[in-house]
Specification:
Blueprint: E1 2-8, H1 10-21, E2 28-34, H2 45-51, E3 73-76, H3 84-91, E4 95-97, H4 105-113, E5 124-129, H5 137-150, E6 154-158, H6 168-177, E7 181-185, H7 189-198, E8 202-206, H8 212-216, E9 220-223, H9 231-244, E10 249-250, H10 261-274, E11 281-283, H11 285-288, H12 295-309, E12 313-316, H13 326-343, H14 367-374, E13 383-387, E14 390-395, E15 398-402, H15 405-412, H16 418-437, H17 456-463
Parallel strand pairs: 1-2, 1-3, 3-4, 5-6, 5-12, 6-7, 7-8, 8-9, 9-10, 11-12
Antiparallel strand pairs: 13-14, 14-15
Helix pairs in contact: 5-6, 6-7, 12-13
Length: about 475
């Protein structure tokens, strides 16, 4: 059985021992070794090289099971800095980082035994630029680059009713020259023709009455019913394209809440049952844009439906400010759901990317455990931890417990230390947010918002055309 040596600091030694002892049927023997520092997070690769002898041999004082023996692997704290690959060469055995929180060790080893890659997906993402006629070619190209960086496979140029798009052909050609796949989305047959003749890869959307456009251009048409409830017209359009041997995508149209969402999902199910092998497109903007709820969860559910229906492509938008991560979320959702289907498992434990607001395990330490650690502290530096009871702030002068920054602030007495006061204000604000939402808080670390994490420079480019303000854009 593999023998693992876990390196830690004095404050975490007892907790780490308890966690390891609690792992049921662990496929390894273990030893906890404190290397002569108080805080495990301050450990570095150079410090380990100086303080741990090579080869790494268990000693009689080591915690754990089994007789003294040579280690097969060394696990260091997740926040340990430095070159662990060089350290592995030095010791002659693998030296690896564990999870950032020691309470996550059981899940860490469970995941390590069943690694699931998220590098594969089957659903193509069409990302629509809904206001393309109002943008210059250069602005369209810049928007396309941002969308592709977020995971878009096809850039969809959305045409607007009663709005001239004189540079449609030029935009299609510029996108194609830059290496993008392009679709043109319009209810005007002439715009679809112009886009197709300019080299668009897809045309959205053709009905049974406008199938003639598919005979004029090489672009792949997306087929829709005359009206959403007219399923027979969509079925006939699909049948005609199949008889012609032409590529296509079929879209039953997803309706918003409360205007027929459930019925439209049933229509997609009937479409799949009627044409088991037909490539289907699912347009999800009516849910993400028109429902005021966090889009990460909406995308997760919709891509779960897409995975079950074997949908080939999804059309999404990110117009509303609350939906500004829709493409990135869609990219994560399609990968997670593909992995769940491929491995025959629930979409749990595969990635935290869509857990943008809450954490699965927000409070790893109990108030009692925090109290034990606080009792050992002998220096004036403040530590901040969060438990189900609230915010715990402690140093050598004692432990304070509160449920908000303003409640705890007077107890810290930092009015004459501006730098420290600013630092503690930031940390207490983060901790309060984490406690209120049920997120994981780690001192000196930003809160983890999953794939919803803000990227200010990209947001500015996405939402503000040159020379305009954010307020004047959709």
């Amino acid at each position: 059985m593999e023998h693992i040596v876990f390196l830690t600091g004095r404050l975490a030694q007892a907790s780490l021992t308890r966690v390891l002892a609690g792992i049921e049927a662990a496929p390894f023997t273990w030893e906890v070794r404190e290397i002569g520092l108080q805080v495990a997070a301050l450990m570095t690769a150079d410090m380990i090289r100086r303080r741990v002898a090579a080869p790494v041999i268990s000693d009689d004082e080591g915690e754990g099971e089994g007789a003294p023996r040579r280690a097969d692997r060394v696990i260091v704290p997740g926040r340990c800095r430095g070159d662990l690959e060089a350290l592995s060469l030095h010791f002659g055995i693998p030296v690896e980082r564990g999870p950032e929180e020691l309470k996550d060790l059981p899940r860490h080893f469970n995941r390590a035994a069943r690694p699931v890659a998220l590098d594969e997906y089957e659903v193509a993402i069409f990302a629509e630029i809904v206001d393309a006629p109002r943008l210059s070619v250069a602005q369209i190209l810049e928007r396309a680059r941002l969308l592709k960086a977020d995971g878009a496979n096809v850039i969809d140029l959305g045409c607007l009713p009663e709005t001239r798009f004189d540079h449609l052909a030029e935009s299609v050609q510029a996108l194609k020259a830059a290496g993008f796949e392009v679709s043109v989305d319009s209810s005007d047959p002439q715009e679809l023709l112009r886009g197709g003749k300019a080299g668009a890869d897809y045309l959205l959307s053709l009905t049974l009455d406008s199938l003639w456009i598919a005979d004029e251009v090489a672009a792949t048409p997306v087929l829709i019913p005359r009206v959403p409830a007219d399923e027979d017209s969509l079925y006939e359009a699909v049948a005609q394209m199949q008889r012609r041997g032409r590529a296509f995508l079929a879209d039953s149209i997803l309706d918003p809440i409360p205007f027929g969402l459930t019925a439209s999902i049933v229509r997609y199910h009937r479409l799949r049952a009627r044409f088991p092998d037909a490539p289907i497109m699912l347009g999800i903007g009516n849910l993400t844009e028109l429902t005021e709820a966090d889009t990460s969860g909406i995308n997760a559910v919709l891509f779960g439906i897409a995975a079950e229906l074997k949908v080939a492509a999804v059309l999404t938008t990110q117009v509303s400010q609350h939906a500004r991560r829709a493409v990135c979320e869609a990219d994560w959702a399609r990968r997670i759901m593909h992995a769940a289907v491929h491995h025959g498992t629930l979409p749990k434990g595969l990635s935290d990317a869509l857990m943008t607001v809450h954490a699965k395990h927000p409070f790893p330490d109990t108030p009692e455990e925090i109290g034990e650690i606080a009792a050992q502290v002998r220096d004036p530096n403040f530590r901040v931890q969060v438990s189900p009871l609230g915010l715990h702030v402690y140093n050598r002068d004692g432990l304070r417990l509160g449920q908000g920054a303003f409640e705890l602030w007077p107890q810290l007495k930092l009015h004459d230390d501006a730098d420290h006061a600013f630092y503690m204000g930031v940390e207490l604000a983060r901790a309060e947010i984490a406690w209120q939402l049920g997120k994981r808080y780690v001192q000196d670390q930003p809160l983890d918002w999953g794939c919803a994490a803000a990227r200010p420079a990209e947001d500015l480019a996405r939402w503000c055309a040159p020379g305009t303000t954010m307020k004047s854009n959709p």
